[in-house]
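Lab manual, section 2.4: Encoding a predicted structure.

Procedure: take the sequence of the chain (114 residues), apply the prediction step described in section 2.3, and record the output as structure tokens. A sample record is shown.
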Amino acid sequence: MMELDSAIAAVKSAAKASGKPIYKRALKMLSREANRLVKVNVGKLDSFPPDASVILVPGKVLGEGEVSRKLSVGAVAFTASAAQKITSAGGEALLIKDFVAKFGEGKGVLLVGG
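Recorded output:
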């Protein structure tokens, strides 16, 4: 799981640099066993309030549902259909290391998962 290791390193760096609790919580979620990582469908991401357009998923984004608005989503992995639906709606599907590079300050980022 090289992508997971890369994600953990990026989030750990962001947590240290920004001091934001969102990255500390994401790090804790990413440190779980691989089979317990978050899995969320794009339809659920689309159902969040309109001001929640920058979303961090410490796991995998699946393609069930539709995306009707521009979202910036960071995740460990995306199914091909999930990435296609996000980008077709004008958004971006970013691996966590790229997401952290772009949104490292944590401002306005919604963490999804439980």
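Check your result against the sample. The beta strands are 38-41, 54-62, 72-78, 92-95, 109-111.
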